[in-house]
Structure formats: C-alpha cells, structure tokens
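This section describes the prediction task in plain terms. A model, or a person checking by hand, is given the sequence of a single protein chain and must write out its three-dimensional structure as a string of tokens. No templates, partner chains or ligands are provided. The sample shown here is typical of the held-out split.
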Amino acid sequence: MKIHEDRSHMNIDTRWFEKGYAKEDVHSLRLQSLCTEAEAAANKQFYDSHTREEWEQYIRQASFESSAAMKPVMEAIAQDFVCYQYDENIPVSYGSDRWDLYFWCNPFNGAADASERDFSYFTLTFNERQTLEKRRKVCQQVLELLCSRFQEHPHLHVAVQCSIWFDHPKIHDAVERAKPRLHGLRCIQDQKEGKLLLQDGTLLFRPKYAKKYTRTLSQSQILSLSWELGVEDGEPDTDAAPVTLPYKKFGATHPIQLQVTSYLNGNLAIQMVTWESGDPEPWATLTVNLPGQRQKDHAFIDTNADSEFPTWLVRHGLAIPTGRTMQSGFCTYPEYRFRANRLQELDPEGYAGYLKNFERRCSA
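The expected answer:
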C-alpha cells in the first residue's frame, strides 16, 4: 500500500496560514488499485502480442479481479465509519453531521448486474458539516485502519486530498478594520495603477485617469492589499482621503465626504465635500442655521439647496426626521436628528469638536 498527500489545490499565499486566517483541511480520500511495474510490463507484452478482442477480454477480467481485491477495503472502512451512500439502509440525511464519509464509485461496465459497483477506484469525502478537528480525526483513523489491515496490499494506492479551511468570521473582522486604512491609498491591480476608495462600506478600486469606472474588491483582495501596503495592524493613515458616501446627481455618482462642525451658537453644522477629482472640493452645505438652539445632533436640512438631501440622509442611515419644520423667508426647512455613531464614523475629529462646543454651550 502507498499513501501520499495531494496539495495541488492549495496554491495560496502562505500568509493566510501564518496569520491564522486559514488552516489545512482534508477534503477526501481517493483509493484505487494500480498495477505494479512488473504487471504493467506484462500487460504491454500481452497487448503487443494479441488481438484487440483478446486484449479487451483480458482487461475486462483484470478489472473484475481488481474490484474484487479492493472491495474488502471498503467493507472494512464501512464497519468502523458511517459511510453515506454506501449502505442505503443507514438512517441519516445528507445534511446531517452524523455521517463521516461520503462514498462514491463507478458502476461496473459490462457486469450482469447493472447496479454492481466497481471498487477498483472509489472516493470517500469528509463531511463539511463536521468540525475541522473531527474531519482530521476521521482521516487519521481511516489511515490507521488501512495501515493495520492492508499494509501489504500490493495494488492499493491512497491519496489524501488536502483542502483549505477559512476562518470567515476572523477574515470579515480583519477586512472591516482594513477598509478605512486602505481608503485613499494608491496601489496596482491587474497591472493598472489606481486608487482605493471606500464608499458606503464598500472598498473600490478606481484606475488612474478613470472618471466613473470602479471595481469592487473581494475580501481576499482587501486582505492581500492590507499586507502589501502595511496597514493590517497599524493605525489608520491620517493622510488618506476620508470616508465618502455616493451621491447621485447630474447624471453621475459623486463621492461625498461629510465634515462635521458647529455654528457660532453651537448648533450642528455639516459641510459636504466631493472627492471626485481625487482632491477635496466644496460641494454644498447640508444644514442651515435657523434662530434658536437645537438639541444635540439635531439640525435643519437645507432643502432649498437640494430637495433630495432628506432622501439621501435616510438612505444611508445618517439621520431621521423629527417631524418639526421651520420657515425662513419663502422656504420651509425640515429638522432631522443625526445618528451619533454615523457622524463619529464619518468624521471622528469633527464630531468630537462639535460635542465640545455643544457641552460648552450647555454649561454656559
């Protein structure tokens, strides 16, 4: 018997393993009967010296003998492990974690019974609904059984098909931490220079000189970039462009940054800045300062400048209407209460300054 491990499907950056985002898993076992070198030479000699019909009959008989020699191997495995699809009487469903191995083989061509199985080649796939540790344990136990029972089997070849297990919760958390740190940095993707932009929680790559075209980056691409650019575990790059939100207007989508500040009387003020050209440019003033003092995180929205401001605020979870309005001149402005956590995310420094001014006003 010969055993070898097949890692041909594990071609990924080793840092995935080193940083704990991935572990080696086992996918399946491939068991097959292969002839020895002496038998291969004898087969060639028979092929060269006999007719086609005689050769086909010879091979058919050899296949039956090979299957018969391999059948006890599968029977021994099935005695110690729950093998789905091998024994149809096993009362477990495919979606259960109660079976250990999924059995598969070809039917025997030319057999009197069409349902007869060809055991000369069969696979045993591990149950992905079981834990990684359980799959590894089952694999080790199967190999130990084969070594103890079939070590001297001259034709048995076993391949352990290795695979990769990914820690998806850990990857998700790392990606979310990396996004704001990557925002505004320049990089190369698919041999193209460009810039990384974080818009509405999605990290995009915009090629150099592109006006509208952007491409969404996958989690693996984001993590790889965080390693290459050295921002995985560091502090956010203070020189990077701030987080932006998409604003559709004039037939285009504009990346808008919100800058939080205060009016002289301590009321909340929010400026809108566009980064469409890669540099900050004034876009509009989102709020309007009307007579009186507003409650914390409350502001009247300048719908005279753009009537779509309220819809945009609600769509991005930035604020909710209070139901209060105030008239100034010929215009009526709606009051909205902004979500403190969103303002903190979008402009932590500006929001902190607003809170200080607000507290100073309240204590005066």
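For orientation: The two ends are 87 Å apart (CA to CA).
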